[in-house]
Amino acid sequence: MPRPITFVVYDQASPRTSKENRRKIASHIGKHYRNRSAPARTLIAPNTKRLKPMVDPTSCSLVPVILGTPEETENSPKPHEIKHTSRVSAMATIQRNMYTIYPSPQQWTQFPYPERHHTSAKVAFDLEVNYVLPRHSNWGPGPNEYVNCLVQMMCRNGELFDAIAASAYGVYACNEHRSSIKPTSAGLTHRARALQGMQRKLISPLETISNETMLAVFYLLENAARFRHLRDFRTHYSGLRRMMELRGRITPRSLEETYVNQAIVILECSEIAWETRVLIERPPPINLTYTAGEFENNLPVRFKSLPVGFQSLAVEGSLSVEVLSLLAEVPPADYIKHDLGASERQLEVVQRARLLLRASKVAVERLVCLGAIAYSLRVIIMKHFFSEPSFWKRLAASGRIVSEDKYSRLHQELKVWVTVIAADLASSTCQELARKAVMRLKDQEEWVNSWEEVSHSMQKFFYSQSFAPTWQKYLECTILE
Predict the structure, then answer these.
(1) Does residue 166 contact residue 194 with C-beta atoms inside 8 Å?
(2) What is the DSSP string of 294-351?
(3) Which residues pair with 104 in a beta bridge?
(4) Do the Cβ atoms of 164 and 128 come closer than 8 Å?
């Protein structure tokens, strides 16, 4: 379990103040909100150690310049020509000058911000232009009208900029400190500013579904997942899902709607980060690939050749189209004698079933994938491909879920079908696991004691008369011992 991260200005675990906490907060305020009447060292060149792009930079040039028209900028002194005459004049220059970030000298994008945010702007825009956009858009390399539009979108919304800056600091922190990932003080500052701005915007119902608000929420979501912040992650996740529901159907022809697509893509990345970094009970998954009762009473033609048990599961909405397509590729056992290519197709079915087994979060689908693996390997007699320890572990986990009262008799028959086929494949090292699984079925289902009942249930799925005597012998010997 990773060590908990303690935030300096926001500690939910210990809300009461202590001497150590007050000292940290005072140090944080003194470092980032220092007295403006004191001398400042803001004209010193910033530390560029963490400003290296994560990929080779594109043709975009992110150059800070003095705010003004292009004609005024050409006649203005270069940054390295500014003479540090005195600290007083330096402070006056900082208060007057604002900076502008633009993708190229030909495309100006006004973005005024104080110089203390100069480093944050470079980090945020470097992340967006050089890392996010080349991977999550088809706009092509280099500055263009789409990149310029996104930069303008970021510049006209302070909450979105703060959220992107906080996320960018987290990305760079992960790249630099792989052993211990801790949020930087600048990242915490932008995160706090973004949260305050989001609270103000979410009061209005019209602001909750704007593109900038959705993007800011997803960047805060990514930041919370990266630093294992449980409560914030759940809050941002539910908020973004709610805004996506309010938005309704996405129109891909609109340029700004592509940013919503980008949010959905990185939302999936945040879910991956959430699963791998936070060791807690996972919230109930929401299946976005299909809806229950998708086929109603009319199955597609290619699925009507499946056994009646799989058809019933498909009609009630327990199986997705991907799993049904997998089952449609399983050749009957009788074809093995006449078709030399059937064994190769069975191995392809096993490979696809293992991939779907890892991807699916539905217990019934996982049972079907386990049954497809066991049946295919039994048909082509390749027991050495049977990954037994992990198989029995996943079968037990899915079987416990299906054993609940809300599942019907058909789901119990599916579990019996998978268990009997897999128990026949078990080697000497896993015979005890197979025996325990069969005895567990006997205790849970009374009709398992009769082979006639078990055979009738198994015939609703993939079944072969040539294998029936072996299954019957194993089941009777295990139950009677």
Answers:
(1) yes
(2) SSTT---GGGTTS-HHHHHHHHTT-S-HHHHHHHHT---GGGGGT-TTHHHHHHHHHH
(3) 107
(4) yes
* Residues pairing with 65 in the sheet: 100
Token digits for 26?
């005072």
CA distances from 342 to 78, 338, 347 (A): 73, 9, 9
Tell me whether residue 421 is exposed, middle or buried, using C-beta atoms within 10 angstroms of its C-beta: 0 to 12, 13 to 18, 19 or more. buried
> Facing residues of 107 across strands?
104
How many angstroms from the chain centroid is the CA of residue 283?
13
What the block records as the tokens of 346 is 């069975």
Report the C-alpha gap between 344 and 287 in whole angstroms. 32
Separation between Cα atoms, residue 76 and residue 218, nearest integer Å? 40
> pLDDT digits over 28-73, tens only?
555 554 444 444 444 334 444 433 333 333 333 232 222 233 333 3
Q: At what angle do helices 409-425 and 468-480 cross, to 10 degrees?
A: 90
Supply the pLDDT for residue 381.
60
Listed range (379-383, 415-419, 422-426) with the worst mean pLDDT:
379-383
Q: Rounded distance, CA 157 to CA 200, Å?
A: 13
Predicted TM-score of the model (pTM): 0.40
Whether the CB-CB separation of 270 and 222 falls below 8 Å is answered with yes
255: pLDDT confidence band, cut at 50, 70 and 90? very low
> Reduced to 3 states, what is the DSSP secondary structure of residue 380?
coil
Instruction: Give the number of other CB atoms < 10 A from CB of residue 400.
Output: 12
Query: In 3D, which of 111, 103, 101 has the Cα closest to residue 142?
Result: 103
DSSP structure class, residue 13? S
Burial class of residue 457 (count of CB atoms within 10 Å of its CB; 0-12, 13-18, 19+): buried
Confidence band for 251, pLDDT divided at 50, 70 and 90:
very low
Tokens of 340: 């030399």
Give CA–CA dist 323/332, Å, rounded: 17
Q: Encoding tokens for residue 52?
A: 């290296």
**Cα distance between residue 150 and residue 255, in whole Å:** 9
C-beta of residue 333 within 8 angstroms of C-beta of residue 349 = no
| DSSP SS3 for 139 | coil
In the block, residue with structure tokens 């597609």: 300
Query: Which of left, alpha, beta for 244 (phi over 0: left; psi -120 to 50: alpha)?
Result: alpha
257 or 302, which is more confident? Answer: 302
* Lookup: tokens for 433: 């696991």
